[in-house]
Amino acid sequence: MMQDDPELSDYRAIAPGYSLSKGELLDVITRSAGATMAVVDRSLTMLYVNDEYARWFGTVPEQLVGKSLTSMYAEAAVTAFMPFVARVLSGERVQYQRLLRTPYGFDEWRTICLTPWHNPEGSIEGFITTALDVHELQVTMEALRAANQRLSSHMENSPLAVLEMDHNLRLLHCSQRAVQLMGWLHVADLQGQLLNELLDLSPADATLQLALQRLQSGQESQNRAETSFRRDDGTEVHCEWFNSALTDPDGQVTSIMALVEDVSAKIEIARQQHYLANHDSLTGLFNRAAFQSQLEKALQAAPGAGCVALLFIDLDGFKGVNDTEGHRAGDEVLRIVARRIASTVRSGDTMARLGGDEFLVMLEHDVTRDVTDTIGQRLLEALQQPMLVEGRELSIGASIGVAECPPLECQIDELMNRADQAMYSAKRAGKGRLHYADED
Fold it and tell me: Residue 347: enclosing H or E segment and its boundaries?
């Protein structure tokens, strides 16, 4: 009886209660597998095909059995699959994807699997070929691949540096622009490293760290930060960071993306503009506006810090230099004067050129009459020394008026006017001397 057939014992173990012969079970499997299936011998003759395989050729299995595999396909297709056939007949299990035209006229992707068919002695008699529909998966993968390629292209071609980090701020990916901007050498060594270990950020500059921490904690989904760091070559780089956090369905941060713009040129231009707005273009000293700002700060602190002394310097004989030697020589004299003043006063003292041949010095630290006298006399001596200009030795001098607060009122205009008046008193008294406003 069928239930006693020993050939069925394995199948009963898999599906107890069913009574199918091996042939019936094989027919069910191949007919209902949802994949094309064929058995081909070494001569490439088809020994078996299932209904799905025959359907692709618009026929029934009986019409294909006995035919050559190569006779069923166009020459281009045969050329494409014969290398895979050679591999499977050498004993290798082969799998690849191929775009096929369906019986309905559509092009769809199939995964082709070729498996060697061994006889009881272990020799290869042929192979089994199956094709499984993977069109939707392949289309999705191609779309994803294309999207990733576009995104990667945008990232690599963007003038902004792009960095992707995990929730612990370990680097996952960075664009080539990021490598260049940060001054990193080897991209392969970067993955998995902490961002704050890769950047030489100033300990006092916590702007970026705080911005990223707010993203990590979920306080913000996006933010921006400005920061600066030094590359290994010593170059100072100023950057503006545009950061955003990616979260999972539970709201947990999974990664952080940063777009980084190099704003070093903008910072440098701003610095230059600030410098030009506050400094005399000829001598590099403070201009009038900047000096008055510094004087205002010093006078506000004076009641609790002590005395402020203002030295108003006007050159003696400078007009003669301009008239006889020309303005270029006069400009060089003014630059030499500025350098001599700077080398005479103390490091914490403030200097300015008001315009023409008028200069100011403010003393605001450890100021006494003895200190003011000493610095004033040194200035007179320094400015009386001959100057070598365009191969000629020129001599000028200076008259200095001094106003101190106290005893004078700590008002900017009042103090500067009194220093100016004291300077004219020094000139009237014979030039080349120091005169105090409180002596008028």
Answer: none
